[in-house]
Write a structure and sequence with these properties.
The chain is α+β, with helices and mostly antiparallel strands and about 350 residues long. It folds into two domains: about 100 residues, Alpha-Beta Plaits (2-Layer Sandwich); about 180 residues, Cytidine Deaminase, domain 2, CATH 3.40.140.10. It is built from eleven helices and twelve strands. The longest helix has 24 residues. The protein is elongated, with a radius of gyration of 28 Å. GO terms for molecular function: tRNA-specific adenosine-34 deaminase activity. This is CMP/dCMP-type deaminase domain-containing protein. Keywords: tRNA processing.
């Protein structure tokens, strides 16, 4: 308790003005697409009076779960306005053309009887992410719902000061690693428990083979020893020290039932923790953060050293729906302080061959 109190007082003493705070949340909308793709669909031309019945039947035999962003029916547009019958016809989406050609022969025959007039149309292949896309997509086919506007994340003044302090510590750790190990990349990482503002682990980059200035001995550089990886490993070491492997992992309930529960006090690695890192993590580090169940990541500047990054640069792994964990990412915190360090850009501009 006393140690935690000292740490909180130290944190308060080093906190900076919130006027230094400037971040931008890395959202899926940030990855702007160049135009959009259209996919060929088989559509039936139907009478308005039979639309309800046919829609129900077709939806049962041909569901299209990957195209829920599309309305299933639209009016049939015609070049001539004189023919009122054509002007009031409707188009009913059946399925993608590629799937239609693979349908069972009996099913295709049944569809042909229900909807004898069919044609191919091109529709947007994915849902719109902005109002601009919503309007553009609607010119090709009606869209079922508008995209939700992005909610800007707001932080209190106290939160801003704490976040600035933690990022400054990450910058300091990175510079320490670079100076102590004679040319390591000046990348620092700090992992914090936001509930108590306690620093759980901190680490710098050790991927390069360099001579230790303090001891004169060669450092054990390793291409996997990125700052983020080292910091997550330090969290694992902290867990092992606090919850030794030989400690009983089960406990009995106090209700006398005799049922055993897992120890509820032990978190899984970085669950709910915040990560502050001076440079955007590479793909490997981003996946490590994801699998360790990190809560939020704050990075200062873009990573111009690693060929591919994972949290806003090359990929956006933190919001990839195909993965089993998602978390918030914010960029730009104290970016100017990292950019103003001449060593940072000098080192990051060196050839990647020196990592070996």
């Amino acid at each position: 308790m006393e140690a935690d109190a000292k740490e909180k007082r130290a944190l308060s003493a080093t906190s900076s003005s919130s006027s230094d705070f400037s971040v931008e949340q890395v959202l899926p909308l940030e990855g702007k697409r160049e135009g959009f793709s259209l996919v060929a669909f088989r559509a039936a031309i139907i009478e308005p009076r039979s639309a309800s019945t046919l829609l129900k039947k077709v939806s049962e035999v041909l569901p299209i779960p990957n195209f829920r962003h599309l309305k299933r029916i639209r009016k049939k547009t015609t070049a001539t306005q004189d023919d009122k019958k054509k002007a009031t016809m409707l188009m009913l989406l059946l399925c993608p053309e590629d799937d239609f050609n693979l349908l069972d022969g009996d099913l295709r025959s049944e569809l042909q009887k229900l909807t004898p007039t069919q044609e191919s149309v091109r529709v947007p292949s994915h849902p719109p992410e902005t109002d601009e896309e919503y309007r553009a997509y609607g010119k090709h086919w009606p869209i079922s719902s508008r995209p939700r506007p992005a909610q800007k994340k707001e932080f209190s003044e106290d939160e801003k000061k704490i976040m600035i302090s933690h990022m400054r510590e990450a910058i300091s750790v990175g510079r320490l690693g670079a100076s102590k190990n004679g040319g390591q990349l000046p990348i620092g990482c700090v992992i914090v428990d936001p509930k108590s503002n306690r620093v759980v682990a901190k680490a710098y980059d050790r991927r390069r083979r360099r001579t230790e200035i303090t001891s004169g001995e060669a450092s054990c550089g390793h291409p996997l020893h990125h700052a983020t990886m080292n910091c997550i490993s330090a969290v694992a070491e902290y867990d092992r020290a606090k919850w030794p492997p030989n400690e009983q992992r089960k406990r009995r309930r106090d209700d006398g039932s005799g049922v055993e529960d897992a120890l509820s006090s032990k978190p899984y690695l970085c669950t709910g923790y915040d990560m502050y890192v001076t440079h955007e993590p590479c793909v490997m580090c981003s996946m490590a953060a994801l699998h360790s169940r990190i809560g939020r990541v704050f990075w200062a500047v873009e990573n111009t050293y690693d060929e591919e990054t994972g949290l806003g640069g090359t990929y956006m792994l933190h919001c990839d729906k195909r993965l089993n964990h998602r978390f918030e990412v914010f960029k730009g915190l104290l970016a100017n302080e990292v950019k103003e360090d001449p060593q940072s850009f000098h080192v990051l501009a060196k050839d990647r061959d020196e990592v070996r």
